[in-house]
Amino acid sequence: MNRALDRRPLRADAARNVDKIITAARQCFRDHGPEVPLQTIAITAGVGPATLFRNFADKEELVLAALNRQLRRLVDPVIDEALAAPDAADGLFRVIYALMGVASEEANLLGAVAGRRGLLTGITGSLIESMAVLLGRGQGQGTLRSDISMTDLIRLLAMLIGVVDTMEAGSDAWRRPVALVEDAIRTERPHRPLPPQAPLPGTAFDAVLGQR
Fold this sequence. Notes:
Blueprint: H1 12-32, H2 38-45, H3 49-55, H4 59-84, H5 88-105, H6 107-111, H7 121-141, H8 150-162, H9 175-185, H10 204-210
């Protein structure tokens, strides 16, 4: 069981400590990158190392808790709105836009689990289930290609999240690739220009080659 994601209710003081640690983790990863030591996070949170480790067994567990919080806060409300809206295709892409916004803003958190992103399954299960519902509805409405499977969509999402590795953290350079994916899986291409193309950071091409 992952303590960071499946917790029993905490006492008020313990809950405040968890909140401070997760908030500090997001700040530290943003300021110092994926290799920031847990000691730095504890100091930033104003807690001792023992308090941090009592709540989070290791860095991966803390990263997942921080990402889970952002998904629940920023993506779940968009999912609820998308499932209630009449246009499933539009709702699906609103969810993808919200997901990519989190991925961009929390790029260094994702970097801390690079190569082990299977760990994210535990915090994205409900997201994937909702996207499957939206995909099926969109296909039933005739607005999404009938030959696109959920396996295809998961792989496209993985490709889009990989775009984060080729841009500056917090950048919205992901909007153009998302628009290209939208053009590919809608039955009719939207009548809008592609978002502007952002230049690659100097090391982005080397990073992509290094992953081969």
